[in-house]
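Record 1 of the preview.
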Amino acid sequence: GNIQQVSLWVLTRALLQARQWIAQDLHLNIAVNLSARDIDDADLPARIARLLELHQVPAPWLTVEVTERAVISEPRTASRILGRLADQGIGIAIDDFGVGQSSFAYLRHLPISELKIDQLFVRHLATEANDRIIVSGIGYIMHRLGFRVTAEGLEDQRALEDLPAFGGDYAQGDLVAR
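->
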């Protein structure tokens, strides 16, 4: 029952770090994972707005990541809360896409700016033809919908080099940074 307090602590720490980067004239987006309970909280957008104001971090420099499972469990509530966050200028990313109950249906109704393809499909991108087809297909569709695409769990230099050809905009994984 403490996940919301943990999330608030993580958001605070992340925005403190973002404030330090701003002071160093570094313009970096920071992403924070939210739980299903967080996106059920009607007060979450106001809390985040207060934290952004307190730490003087522009809203577009923050992205919140939610798993597709969290969105699917309560789609109407998730849509309302995420919509309020997006209205503030905060980026919304769907994390771990492709595992569990993947559905393109809910993507039409959510204010998503980024989709993160799960490492299950990315880990062997350089060597598995089916993974390349899946990642390319997801990348194509997401770009047509106006989303950025991040490949999670990228650990292979060849896959990193080939990622743009497969529709990936960003890479996340040990190869990039622990």
